[in-house]
Amino acid sequence: MEKQPKPKSPRDRAIRLLTTRDRTIEELRQRLLKEGFSQQEVEEVIVWCSEIGYLDDQRTAKQWVDNRNRFRPTGKHGLRMELRNKGVHEDTITKVMNSQEGDYQLAKELAKKRLATLGHIPVRKQYQRIGGLLSRRGFNWDVISQVLNELFTSSLDTDL
Q1: pLDDT value at position 160?
Q2: What's phi and psi for 11, nearest 5 deg?
Q3: Is residue 136 a contact partner of residue 107, using CB atoms and an 8 Å limit?
Q4: What distance in Å separates the CA atoms of residue 160 and residue 150, rounded to the nearest whole number?
Q5: What is residue 39's three-state secondary structure?
Q6: In the predicted model, is pLDDT for residue 5 greater than 70?
Q7: Fewest Cβ atoms nearer than 10 Å: which of 74, 88, 123, 138?
Q8: Residue 6 banded pLDDT, cuts 50, 70, 90
Q9: According to CATH, what is the number of the domain 10-55?
Q10: Could you tell me which residues come within 8 angstroms of residue 134 by beta carbon, excluding any fewer than 6 positions away?
Q11: What is d(CA 80, CA 88) in angstroms, rounded to the nearest whole number?
């Protein structure tokens, strides 16, 4: 396979980056600056890409949340941190965020899947591991406690 020549213009490089996956404005800005293009060139390219619809932080953030919901369920806190790290503005993050009920459903499904693999260990350990998993994935304590109570209420009273 022949190696592609490096683009000489920031527009060409931006188009090439945006064809592989959607990026936020800040991600594209940082990438182009890192590759040695001037601040003025980068800002012109960002304006151009935004005008023609290649850059849209809200669309990108929505796709990110949908992807996470499908393939690696993450709570509101975790999603908020990930999107902030990508340079998405707070008002855009608020628009694309999961509802409280959606967050609960994701946590419940994730907990059920994991619980199915933990049948060989004591219930107390299952409880701790599920709680830890949900916490690491960015679910808030209200959601975690609700899911844990639903899954373990009957078995905790008798097995501990």
Answers
A1: 45
A2: -65, -45
A3: no
A4: 16
A5: helix
A6: no
A7: 123
A8: low
A9: 1.10.10
A10: 75, 107, 110, 111, 143, 144, 147
A11: 9
**Residue 4 · residue 17 · CB < 8 Å:** no
* Sequence letter at residue 11: R
- Measured in whole angstroms, the distance separating CA 8 from the mean position of its chain's CA atoms is 32
**How many C-beta atoms lie closer than 10 Å to residue 23's C-beta?**
21
Reading the block at residue 47, the tokens are 């304006």
The structure tokens 């005008």 sit at 51
Amino acid at 69: N
Distance CA 98, CA 79 (A): 9
CATH code that applies to domain 99-160: 1.10.10
**Best CA proximity match to 135, nearest among 113, 158, 119, 111:** 111
User: Coil, helix or strand for 90?
Assistant: helix
Residue 71 has pLDDT above 90, yes or no: yes
List, for residues 72-92, the tens digit of each pLDDT value.
999 999 999 999 999 999 999
> Residue 1 has what pLDDT?
55
